[in-house]
Amino acid sequence: MFRLEINIIFWTLVSFGIVCWVISAKIYPVLAKILKNREEKIIADLANAAEKSRAAETLHNDLAERQKNIELEAHRIISEAQEKGKRQAAEQWQVWQEEFRELRRVKEEDLRRAEEDFYRHFEERVGKMLYAACAKVLRLNLTPELQQQILQERLAELKKIKEF
Amino acid sequence: MHEAAKVFLALRWGWLDISIDTTVLLNFCAALFLIACLFLIRRGLAFQPKGFGQNLLEAVVEFTDAQILRPAGLNQAWLPWCLSAFLYILFTGLPLGILGLLGPQWGLGSAVSNINGTAALAVLFFLVSLGVRFRQHGFWGFCQSLVPTGVRGPVVLLLFPIEVVSQLFKPFSLAIRLFANMSGGHLLLITILGFTALFNNVAVWLASYGGAIVIIFFELFVCCIQAYVFTFLGASMIGEALNGE
């Protein structure tokens, strides 16, 4: 039933030996080198990534600290600026008040002078006008009605000027 | 169990008959096919896997490492050996399924369906484990390792021969397991297809051939399982010799 077949045993061992030699000498070393290189690269990449992650974490913390400091600094600067602004605004207000009072005083002085000039010129002009009117009335041979009318007109003009 | 295979080339080496017959030829074809596949994959090996071949080979190597070497307690130095055994049994077993499509009698010609072939591989594993045991423990350690730990006195005389027999039976069980599992499917295939000769009926033909196709694909699966089981048990045998457990 079972027969010893030396040729099968022999050639099985030979073919297995050849396969074993091919795999051990030709295939596996190349594959193992690739796998080892890949493993080393993965380990190196992982270590690098962990290092970068730690650096990023440190940087993140540093950045958060700096941001916090910057926010505090900004808040302080804004507060100082607001205080300074208020102070400067108050000082400026005082200056403007002074300037305004000075300007007002000058303008009131100018107005008073102008008013005085006006009244002085006005009296002179009214006097001249009355003189001219009288001279005209006296110089011309007008009827009493016409003289009355001219005087009325001048008086009306005088009234208008006075109202003005 | 089976008829004598057809001899293609009659060779003799002293008193040894090393003729090349169908089984040997199928064995060579399978081994050559395996080597050709491996060289094809090797040609395209790259740091970043690109093709199906490299991915498959790396997966097989990872599988051998994780599922055979580590459970068996072997280090990476044994990986080529175990990988060779796994791939060799897998590829020499594949003709069982592939050539089974041509006819069951073709598939039965492959090496792992022959007890001589499986016995050769099992004895090889056994001899390697013996060599490792000698090298690791020396002669006295080798003899001591055949006695269970903690056993003293006259019980040793009883247990020593039992342990020797159990060691001797390991390659025997390995060879029989692989042979029986590989050839069992084909015997079933022959039986199922034999019904077509007995019953000249369309329904029987359809059922027989349908069942045969299912069994052929199942045999491919069994081939993978048996390649793993044989390699794992062989590796365990070496691991046991190496670690003394």
UniProtKB/TrEMBL annotation, chain A:
<keyword id="KW-0812">Transmembrane</keyword>
<keyword id="KW-0138">CF(0)</keyword>
<keyword id="KW-0375">Hydrogen ion transport</keyword>
<dbReference type="InterPro" id="IPR050059">
    <property type="entry name" value="ATP_synthase_B_chain"/>
</dbReference>
<dbReference type="GO" id="GO:0045259">
    <property type="term" value="C:proton-transporting ATP synthase complex"/>
</dbReference>
<protein>
    <recommendedName>
        <fullName>ATP synthase subunit b</fullName>
    </recommendedName>
</protein>
<keyword id="KW-1003">Cell membrane</keyword>
<comment type="subunit">
    <text>F-type ATPases have 2 components, F(1) - the catalytic core - and F(0) - the membrane proton channel. F(1) has five subunits: alpha(3), beta(3), gamma(1), delta(1), epsilon(1). F(0) has three main subunits: a(1), b(2) and c(10-14). The alpha and beta chains form an alternating ring which encloses part of the gamma chain. F(1) is attached to F(0) by a central stalk formed by the gamma and epsilon chains, while a peripheral stalk is formed by the delta and b chains.</text>
</comment>
<keyword id="KW-0066">ATP synthesis</keyword>
<keyword id="KW-1133">Transmembrane helix</keyword>
<dbReference type="InterPro" id="IPR002146">
    <property type="entry name" value="ATP_synth_b/b'su_bac/chlpt"/>
</dbReference>
<dbReference type="GO" id="GO:0005886">
    <property type="term" value="C:plasma membrane"/>
</dbReference>
<comment type="function">
    <text>F(1)F(0) ATP synthase produces ATP from ADP in the presence of a proton or sodium gradient. F-type ATPases consist of two structural domains, F(1) containing the extramembraneous catalytic core and F(0) containing the membrane proton channel, linked together by a central stalk and a peripheral stalk. During catalysis, ATP synthesis in the catalytic domain of F(1) is coupled via a rotary mechanism of the central stalk subunits to proton translocation.</text>
</comment>
<feature type="transmembrane region" description="Helical">
    <location>
        <begin position="6"/>
        <end position="28"/>
    </location>
</feature>
<keyword id="KW-0813">Transport</keyword>
<dbReference type="Pfam" id="PF00430">
    <property type="entry name" value="ATP-synt_B"/>
</dbReference>
<comment type="function">
    <text>Component of the F(0) channel, it forms part of the peripheral stalk, linking F(1) to F(0).</text>
</comment>
<keyword id="KW-0406">Ion transport</keyword>
<dbReference type="GO" id="GO:0046933">
    <property type="term" value="F:proton-transporting ATP synthase activity, rotational mechanism"/>
</dbReference>
<keyword id="KW-0472">Membrane</keyword>
<dbReference type="GO" id="GO:0012505">
    <property type="term" value="C:endomembrane system"/>
</dbReference>
<dbReference type="GO" id="GO:0046961">
    <property type="term" value="F:proton-transporting ATPase activity, rotational mechanism"/>
</dbReference>
TrEMBL record, chain B:
<dbReference type="InterPro" id="IPR023011">
    <property type="entry name" value="ATP_synth_F0_asu_AS"/>
</dbReference>
<feature type="transmembrane region" description="Helical">
    <location>
        <begin position="213"/>
        <end position="238"/>
    </location>
</feature>
<dbReference type="InterPro" id="IPR035908">
    <property type="entry name" value="F0_ATP_A_sf"/>
</dbReference>
<keyword id="KW-0812">Transmembrane</keyword>
<comment type="similarity">
    <text>Belongs to the ATPase A chain family.</text>
</comment>
<dbReference type="InterPro" id="IPR045082">
    <property type="entry name" value="ATP_syn_F0_a_bact/chloroplast"/>
</dbReference>
<keyword id="KW-0138">CF(0)</keyword>
<feature type="transmembrane region" description="Helical">
    <location>
        <begin position="78"/>
        <end position="103"/>
    </location>
</feature>
<keyword id="KW-0813">Transport</keyword>
<keyword id="KW-0472">Membrane</keyword>
<dbReference type="InterPro" id="IPR000568">
    <property type="entry name" value="ATP_synth_F0_asu"/>
</dbReference>
<feature type="transmembrane region" description="Helical">
    <location>
        <begin position="20"/>
        <end position="41"/>
    </location>
</feature>
<keyword id="KW-0375">Hydrogen ion transport</keyword>
<keyword id="KW-0406">Ion transport</keyword>
<keyword id="KW-0066">ATP synthesis</keyword>
<dbReference type="GO" id="GO:0042777">
    <property type="term" value="P:proton motive force-driven plasma membrane ATP synthesis"/>
</dbReference>
<feature type="transmembrane region" description="Helical">
    <location>
        <begin position="186"/>
        <end position="206"/>
    </location>
</feature>
<keyword id="KW-1133">Transmembrane helix</keyword>
<dbReference type="GO" id="GO:0045259">
    <property type="term" value="C:proton-transporting ATP synthase complex"/>
</dbReference>
<feature type="transmembrane region" description="Helical">
    <location>
        <begin position="115"/>
        <end position="134"/>
    </location>
</feature>
<dbReference type="GO" id="GO:0046933">
    <property type="term" value="F:proton-transporting ATP synthase activity, rotational mechanism"/>
</dbReference>
<dbReference type="Pfam" id="PF00119">
    <property type="entry name" value="ATP-synt_A"/>
</dbReference>
